[in-house]
């Protein structure tokens, strides 16, 4: 089979190689899946660069989220077992963690449902306790993680403010249903939030960016507001001024979705059921901007690493549907 492999960490376009390799052999408690679609996530770029908290042995195949087909013909969502990641024709994954792919979503959309939407759901509902009628501020609102939070916020009945970088991404955020879109390249985020909310500020801020995005969230946080720290795609890990949190009575909440999978798997299953319902109702739909063939996967990972993408890039290996085995 074909698989992208990393022998030496570095920038994706340089470090990733498309190679012919044997199909992975399932270990104890694992199953083999034919990859129908593999969503490209920012952690894939960090894995290739050697900057992720998990460092699989070299050589490895990146790709942490797929829609795949079991040998008995079930369409499922899975997190492949590294070092055999999803940017390949076949993967292995823990059998107990397989989730049924929603019928309302195609393969590429289903591949993009799991990590981003689970992170959004746990961040907004479990951590921040977002309430109907509250104001939600979403950074990188046109990106894969941000667009999920926008849709989930709207589904929860919140007023959603999306922050983006550039006119093209602003149009995408508007199409997603944001009640206000702020272009951070030309507008003052804090001033616009305060103006739009009549000085109240954002009840919840969802931040996958870090750096200046976190600083803006703190400055426009409402009384008893909540800032959900999801990641640092901007490259800068902020150092919160805790005296500021004390004075303004807001909370800073960390969100590492992977811990729920390890510590409360029942909650992950319940969340998937809710996401499946929302997808069936048309309330959420992963924003897949491009379906990329397997031979262009390295370029897709590089573009996600560079922060130039809108929505999700999903790698779709080209195979005969009858090739599953």
From TrEMBL:
Start and end residues of each Enoyl reductase (ER) domain: 11-315
CDD domains for the chain: QOR1 (cd08241)
Pfam families membership: ADH_N, ADH_zinc_N
Domain of life according to the entry: Bacteria
SMART domains: PKS_ER (SM00829)
Stored InterPro entries: ADH-like_C (IPR013149), ADH-like_N (IPR013154), ER (IPR020843), GroES-like_sf (IPR011032), NAD(P)-bd_dom_sf (IPR036291), Quin_OxRdtase/zeta-crystal_CS (IPR002364), Zn-ADH-like_protein (IPR051397)
Protein name: NADPH:quinone oxidoreductase family protein
